[in-house]
Amino acid sequence: MPQKSNPISCETVIGLTSISITIAQGMYGAMTPGYERATGEWQIEWDTLPIVCAGTAGSLSLIVEITRNLSVNKERMKENLELNQGLIMSESVMMLLAEEIGKQKAHELMYRLSKKSSTENKKLQKVLEEDETASKLVNFEKIRSALNPTGYLGEAPDLARKSVVNWDSLFPENGRSGSKGINY
Known about the structure:
Elements: H1 8-24, H2 27-30, H3 44-68, H4 74-81, H5 90-101, H6 103-120, H7 124-130, H8 132-137, H9 140-146, H10 156-170
Helix pairs in contact: 1-3, 5-6, 6-7
């Protein structure tokens, strides 16, 4: 289909990763020698290690190309986050509620409210506002904040920045200068 832009490089990375994971499992056999690195078990390293290293190197090379040509459409990402009525942020709200009622009760409450949101095709925020239990536990300003995807990133931004700095220091020729559409 000419209109499609298939991410074949991404599919290749997934394939190489699957191969490496499968083959690397054979290395566990090398970890169980009968007596002080007896013959037999360690020879598996000769075949598995080069294949895993080659697959990893190939994946990393493709990832460099993928990220160099990556274009991020922020508006489309926002639209995608709203496709399921805000349910993608139910865990964030659950963690907020857990501070008040404990994780298990918060999970049960959010499970019920998420199901209601989905069944009635209502935004999760509206369902939360209408629910007496949720509204008594947390003020709506905190709930609105918990429903904001940009506020629930954890350590991801810090880790991403550190990764980029580390990458640039190791491979300056593959650094940010060639990236398109990515803001570090």
